[in-house]
Structure formats: structure tokens, C-alpha cells
Amino acid sequence: MAEDLFKKLVAHCKEYGYVFPSSDLYDGLGAVYDYGQYGVELKNNIKKYWWDSMTRLHQNIVGIDSAIFMHPTVWKASGHVDAFNDPLIDNKDSKKRYRADVLIEEQIAKYEEKMEKEVAKAQKRFGEKFDAILFVQTNPQVLEYAAQKAKLTERMAKALNDNNLEELRQIIVDYKIVCPVCGTANWTEVRQFNLMFATEMGSTAEGASKIYLRPETAQGIFVNFLNVQKTGRMKIPFGIAQIGKAFRNEIVARQFIFRMREFEQMEMQFFVRPGSELEWFAQWKEARMKWHQLLGFGSENYRFHDHEKLAHYANAACDIEYRFPFGFKEVEGIHSRTDFDLSQHQKYSGKKIQYFDTELNESYTPYVVETSIGVDRMFLQILSAAYCEEDLSKEGKQDSRIVLKLPPALAPVKMAVMPLVKKEGLPEKAQEILEMLKYDFNCQYDEKDSIGKRYRRQDAIGTPFCITIDHQSLEDNAVTIRHRDTMEQERVAIDCLYAILKEKTDLGNLLRRI
């Protein structure tokens, strides 16, 4: 059921101009996608929501835009040259390649699904008197699944922390994990694969030097730490935010735009005094969760997931996960990176990277708390949450609609202006209204087909409001606003349109609730 829903969502994205396979004319390029006319608007609105929430709401956070190409030693210092690897395993029958840890995580997710099914069955059986928390704590079957999940999670974490590739394969064998395509367990050994794209920079082949497309945007922030701190006269604690493209040669790219080879990140590195990083880590965890939940997709669909395996540079790490149609998956990571990055760049560059704290009267290398979101994953999360199929049948008359219930502040088109008919002065009046609103809102003019078909088309695009101009509008200077989510209609004066729409769609009103 969830898989069918996801396929419908992918098809909807192409049909309504949100996402296209890249190079579609030539049958596409694996795990690379283009954003269509509505997709780019939604993506830009997501980025603005994040950017403004970071740089406008915090006087001590500023933004930069660093280059994609960086000195190759940057990636040696960061550890990406030697350690940016995924543990991969092949199935000999299907010839498909998988990340070993993802296969195991999917097995762990099966235990979670079994637990949820037991809870759902009990809920149905006992009704309103059902105590879900008590049931989870006492039911023998649920406790057994929880124990199996904990055991497997612990075993995987140890194998990953020890970089024990043989143990990762043994886990897959022991738990009889099979290839999702062919259903067999005919596995190869697990081996590491570096994810960075390499290219050459130089005017001639002989004089070219090997460089990399950046696999993350964070290092551009770290190498500019002193530039920003000195020119901005920044005092600890302070943050540097950045939105930009990153590139990873993902062998196991899948699930549409969830995991791609070319993607966009929104990252903020927050520099703090050593010893205070875990306190800031906890604060940013809560702040980021609130930012997500303000979009109104249900707090029960989000959760924290603490990392079992910490990266070599981290002393704490947590993901914010959303319940996608294919299960809970990460949309944002919060990491306490210690002083690893700045210390490494200080070591490899031979230049001092420290901050003089006037309150403590001492110099030190700041610690860092990172928040990092994949823009494309966030885009997919919002579309997954917004996509609805509604049955509107009544009194024996069949009717339905597909609607994207996007938050109005993020919707690509805020309103569609529609003359009821294409004659008798109504298009001219509609154009007047469009001219009045287009400087403040992304509006669309639509006069083709019946008004009912136009409403359905705008529902599928996710337009929150439709403004209909009828013959009475020429007399009373009023229009009908149709609300996307409820399909209710109300008559309002044209002079009041701006104020009504501004209040409903303004991003600032969303930011004020943070």
C-alpha cells in the first residue's frame, strides 16, 4: 500500500512539473533529477524558510556561499580521502549492489513494523480503554521483538565502529537477509567504496591536478572560519550557514530523490566554547525539531534517532527522522563535531586557527555543533506529507481529487486568478486583479476548461487559494476565494484580497512561531 502510494507520488511529480528525470530526452541518468517549474519554486521556498530562520532570527548566525571546487588538501585534512567510504555488498544472482548497513537497518525496521502491528491489533481490540504505553512495556510478543531489535542494533553498531566488514556480512548471513530483487542470499564479501567524484583542473593534461567535487558543504565553512570571524567581528558562540550543491558517487542511489549523486545541502556550523558543546547540541536538537513540526504534518510523524555509531570526529550525533511512505528516514542530522575540523585544517595548512576569548582571556580552538539538512530530502518529505487522494463521492455520484496540501507559505503558487468565463469583461477584470497581486505573490492566471476542472488542476499543483471573478464582481467589486484544503468558498471585497492573502501565505508568520 505504502509502496503504491510512493509510486503515485513519483508519477505525480513528473505529471505536474515538480521533478523530472535528468536528461529525460535521452532516457535519463541514474539518480540524477531536474526540478520543474513548480518544483523549483517549492525548493526555493524551503531554502528561504531555512535561511531566514537561521540568519534573520539569530543575530549571531551569518551566511556564506563557498566554492564547489576546493584545494585537494582540504579533503585530506577532513578525512574524506581516506575514510569517506560505504560498506557495499553484491548479490551474485541479481547483480545488484547494496549498502550492507542499510540492508541490516531494513531488517531492524521489520522488528519495528511487527511491534506497531501488535499495538494496532490491540488498539482495535480494546478500543478507547487501550493504554498503548503500558501494552508496549508489558506485552510478551512486543518485548520479544524489542529485544531482537536491540540485539541486532548493538551487533551492527559494534561492527561499524570496529570497521569489521566480515562481521557485517556475517550478520546478513545469520539473519537470512535476502536480495530485495531476486530473493536469494548469494552474497559477495563486503568491501569499502570511496564516494567522492574526482576530476582534473588545469589547461593541459600534463599540467592538470586532481581535485574533487565537494561531498559536503561543511568544509567550505571551516576553511572560512577566520575570514568570517574577523570581518564580521563575530563573538563565540556564533554560527555560519550555507546552502549549496554537493556530490557523492552513490552506488546505491534509490527511492527517487531521497538519495542522489548531485544534491543540495543546508548546513549551519555553530562554534562554541569547549565544554559547552553538549549543552548546545541539546538546544539545537529541540530547535530543529520545532522548525520541522511547525509545518503542520503531525508531531507523531517525527522522531529523534540517536546514532549507535559515531563518526570519528563526533562526541554526539542525532537524526531527525520523518515517517516516509517507505518508513522512518533521516531528514536532518545534528552532530557535535568537537574541534576536529578546525584542528585538522590548522595541522594541514600550518596556519593558526584559534579564537581569542576576551571573557576568558585565552585562545582556543572552538568546538562545533552542526545542523545539516538535505534540501532534496526535505522536498520529498514535504511532498510525501502533502500528497492526498480524497474520495468526494456523495449520493451515488462518484467523485475524487488528488490534492497537495502544502503549507501555504511554501506552496509554489499562492493563488490562481480565474474568470468564470472567457468573455463579457471577466478576463479583463481578472487581469486587473492579477496585476495588483503579482508583485507580492506568485500568482497564476487560468481560464481554460470549466471552473471545476480548473479547481482540480490547482489542487494537484498545491495552490492554496483560487480567486474566481464572476459577473457579480463587475457590480460589487468582490470575488470568491476558494480554499484548497476545505474546498469552502467565501465572498470578499477585492480591496481586502491583499491583506487576507498576505496573512495566510506570509513566510514571516511561520517564522514568528519559531
Specify the oligomeric state.
single chain
* Number of beta strands: 23
CATH fold-level label of the largest domain = BirA Bifunctional Protein, domain 2
Helix content: 25-40%
Number of domains: 2
Biggest sheet statistics? 7 strands, mixed
Q: What structural keywords apply?
A:
alpha+beta; 24% strand; 18 helices; 2 domains; BirA Bifunctional Protein, domain 2; globular; 7-stranded mixed sheet; Rossmann fold; 514 residues; 5-stranded mixed sheet
Structural overview:
The chain has 514 residues and is α+β, with helices and mostly antiparallel strands. It has two domains: 16-84 and 195-384, Bira Bifunctional Protein, Domain 2 (BirA Bifunctional Protein, domain 2); 404-511, Anticodon-binding domain (Rossmann fold), CATH 3.40.50. It is 39% helix and 24% strand. The strands form seven sheets. Strands 3-9-10-16-13-12-11 form a seven-stranded mixed sheet. A hairpin with a 5-residue loop joins β22 (478-483) and β23 (489-493). α5 runs parallel beside α8 and α7 (140-161) packs antiparallel against α8.
Summary of the model, kept short:
This protein is of the alpha+beta class. It contains 18 helices and 23 strands.
Describe the secondary-structure layout.
Layout: H1 2-15, E1 19-21, E2 33-35, H2 37-55, E3 61-63, H3 72-78, H4 80-83, E4 85-90, E5 97-99, H5 100-126, H6 132-138, H7 140-161, H8 165-174, E6 191-194, E7 198-201, E8 209-212, H9 218-222, H10 225-231, E9 238-247, E10 262-272, H11 277-293, E11 302-306, E12 316-324, E13 327-338, H12 340-349, E14 355-357, E15 362-364, E16 367-374, H13 375-386, E17 387-391, E18 400-404, E19 415-419, H14 426-437, E20 443-445, H15 451-461, E21 465-469, H16 473-476, E22 478-483, E23 489-493, H17 497-505, H18 507-511
Parallel strand pairs: 3-9, 19-20, 19-21
Antiparallel strand pairs: 1-2, 4-5, 4-6, 7-8, 9-10, 10-16, 11-12, 12-13, 13-16, 14-15, 17-18, 21-22, 22-23
Helix pairs in contact: 2-13, 3-12, 5-7, 5-8, 7-8
